[in-house]
Write a structure and sequence with these properties.
Blueprint lengths: L2 H25 L11 H14 L5 H21 L1 H4 L3
Amino acid sequence: MDLLALGLNSIVVGGIIAITKVITTVFDPQGKLSRWYILVPTVLAVLGAYLMTTPFEVKAFLLNVLIYAGVSTYLFKFGKSVILGD
């Protein structure tokens, strides 16, 4: 993995976290569905992996899904106090 791929993966993970925060804030301001918030970065990770895997290969797609979903879900769920100050 080169520096460009690492940077692109970081941008995708940051975008997933940002979009997840916007979606959860806009569509559920009271936090009633907070136990389902973990699905949002997972679904966005699958979409991001599909868009970032060129040329499309199943093995590369699954690896990207694992990276994007794992990192973004972990940071969204456990890294909020560090990243967002919540």
